[in-house]
Amino acid sequence: MAPASKAEKKAAVDAAAWMFNVVTSVGIIIVNKALMANYGFSFATTLTGLHFATTTLMAVVLKWLGYIQASHLPLADLLKFILFANFSIVGMNVSLMWNSVGFYQIAKLTMIPVSCLLEVFFDKIRYSRNTKLSIAVVLLGVAVCTVTDVSVNAKGFIAAFIAVWSTALQHFLCVQYVHYLQRKYSLTSFNLLGHTAPAQAATLLLLGPFLDYWLTNKRIDQFSYNLPSLLFIILSCSIAVGTNLSQFICIGRFTAVSFQVLGHMKTILVLILGFMFFGKEGLNIQVVVGMIIAVAGMIWYSNASAKPGGKERRSHSIKHGSDSTQLDDKV
Q1: How far is Cα 107 from Cα 146, in angstroms, rounded to an integer?
Q2: What tens digit of pLDDT does each residue of 258-291 get?
Q3: Which of 77, 325, 258 is nearest to 179 (CA)?
């Protein structure tokens, strides 16, 4: 009975982590878009800094309660992490500010082909015919949405382009880098978050107001704050604590394939809720068809790349004719 009980307990904890990540990740997108679209809070970089400042407060409380033990992370490793992480998060928030929720989420799907391109060039990964076709389907769906979505503008398109490439590069370098740091310095998810959150908060709050002014020509100190907008800022920061924490928890708990399935669920929920609350004016049959094509391609990609031979290193196939379906850890 003991092994079964232990397995059941693990399954329950995994399910809780899964739902925690879904709720917080979807919630932060919807709340941030409401804050930006309904209340005109266009200070995406500063808002991200506030998110990490709130997360830092949570880390201090957890350390006081004994959940975070003293640990060490060299400054050089810390700076490498926050450089890519900050650029990615800020890029995504600016993309959300300048685009509809639908286009923002569809643009994120292009991270699949961008990530594949990075893997082909830097990791010598080879993809099967089905995997390549699935990537083409994703791009087709994104193209249909981009051409027909009247809310897309040049400024938003450029922001989405930068956000996608920076985020794909961040995932390529940092997801495995997180594993590397946790193993090398014996860091738990809480420990790592305790190191990175204060550094990200400091850099973003220092640079945020200047970058936001450059992007929007608006000063954060001149924003007309009122009770509803302040409540949304507080809600956004509160959800961000869960989002930041859940990312670290899920990276260490789920396989690459499971993480992709988790992403599918979040994509569909964001698209549905985005159109319910913000996208009615831009919704037409072409956009719906494009989204269905893109999501179908995304699901096909995760299935095709997980099969033997769907995604493998060229060196492995030469030596073993092998069927590696997941990336090895990259240091």
Answers
A1: 9
A2: 565 566 667 777 777 777 777 655 556 777 787 7
A3: 77
